[in-house]
């Protein structure tokens, strides 16, 4: 664990451990297969193998808890939506919501799809409970048509670095299974190299909740014939939802624990207080509160 003090007792910046903060957390899914029990078919090259999803049978259930459980590649578990047979295609969306219960600093969000990756989906975040959902990243084969974004856009120095970009890089229909999508929150942000001094990027990586909006399925175009087995072969399925990040403590704590009233709180050092160590202790207000940096702990001082 990172220490907030040097050996000689001087204070230094400290950070909670970096971890997969989604692991074993509950994800809320707006749609899950299996109620009623349904047949679904997997694309395996030129053939389709068909199976059953049944929410009442643990062996055949594909509920949202399987998004964030321990996952072995040779025996994947996965969450699965109903199929196109149940009309989940665009303009209808399927939402996955992950509530973190506290501010975290997000480094990456990774999704491993069990079936074909979606044609279009988006990642949103919010920075306070019941606050507005803010776009984080868009993915689409038709960025301009679906999200009114330019697929080739990038952020120049001096631009607002809190802009969500769109890419068509991960919208191919191949691979038929096992495709990854990883979003790095700081990639392509000009001030990333100077993160300690960038209030904008410190705000950009902060999230209390994440939302994955699955907006459009990827298909071979054969669904137009309305064949039942074809419609049952298109659905969303994700075997792993990972989020790399740290509990946000502004450099003034090395751990987060369960608070008295539930939820996580930072174990604040450097005479700071608050769920995120975001203010000075009442008796240590001789200078304004500041976030700790690599150069200085910026501890709160008493007279």
TrEMBL record:
Q: Laminin N-terminal domain: which residues?
A: 10-246
Query: Which key words tag this protein in UniProt?
Result: Disulfide bond, Glycoprotein, Laminin EGF-like domain, Repeat, Signal
Q: Which organism is it from?
A: Scomber scombrus (Atlantic mackerel)
Q: Which InterPro entries match?
A: Laminin/Netrin_ECM (IPR050440), Laminin_N (IPR008211), LE_dom (IPR002049), LMN_ATRN_NET-like_EGF (IPR056863)
A Pfam family cross-referenced in the UniProt record is Laminin_N
Q: This chain belongs to which protein, by name?
A: Laminin N-terminal domain-containing protein
Give me the Gene Ontology terms describing cellular component. basement membrane
Which example biological process does GO assign this protein?
Answer: animal organ morphogenesis
**What PROSITE patterns does the annotation carry?**
EGF_LAM_1, LAMININ_NTER
